KLHL7-like protein (Mya arenaria), 176 residues
Amino acid sequence: MEYEQEYERKYASSTLLRQVKEQNKDFCDVPVHVGTWVKRFHSCILVESGFFDTLFHTSEFREHVTGVIEIRERSSNIVDEAIQFLYNVEPNLNKDNIGEFVDIAEFLMIPRLKAFCVKWLEQTEKSITLIAISLPLFTLYDLDVPSVSDYIKKHLIELMNGTELLNIDANSLQSR
């Protein structure tokens, strides 16, 4: 999935966010299920996601008929924060969850969220731990973070002598 090189924050009405918080069924017309977790959202906001837009507009999908979206194999907390991002609530990214957010941005086809994650990677202080987390993401999700590439070039010997990169596979190192 392509993503914008610059992350631009958009603004949602506090009324829409309040309706989600209150789970107002008159306006929040789409229930999203992740395991036993269920939360309702506005279809007019969800369509910014290519995933939801496709489900809503393709009659072959069960979700198009039932109006219920079921997402599997993802954390409900990450799904909720990714959808909240569509309402312009920025997730709190860190080294422990950046991989999950890049993954959900790709899965839900939210280019703005992917750009937000890339911006976070670009601006976060570089460390061997961050590099070990970032390298697989580069290959899996076609990310380009010049500051990480520069850090690798400047600290290659240190990186090679450490143990943090022992679990990195060959694909993670291609073109870096």
